[in-house]
Design goal:
Length: about 120
Amino acid sequence: QVQLMESGGGLVQAGGSLRLSCAASGVMFRLSILGWYRQAPGKQRELVATLTTGGMTNYAESVKGRFTISSDNAKNTVYLQMNSLKPEDTAVYSCNLRKILPPKDEYWGQGTQVTVSS
């Protein structure tokens, strides 16, 4: 059974930092795209950052230079370091793992709340 479990969310003041973690079980990171997404109240879910197991990263324009995605494959864990947080970063953050080979299985975590106060 595949599980993705996020942790590290919370309440932080604007300008502060948080590090989110997503621990995966029942699935390996090999040949996968790892991602963080977020959904704010009343808005659609949006991509925050992705990381391929080959090491390529991609970031939403709104978080470039502030957020960093990384992984520890030995621990089967993906991280999102968030610095210089802004109130508009407030959202539920979810991790995602998508296999790149057919059948391209995809898995989601349950999400963790990040609230940035002004």
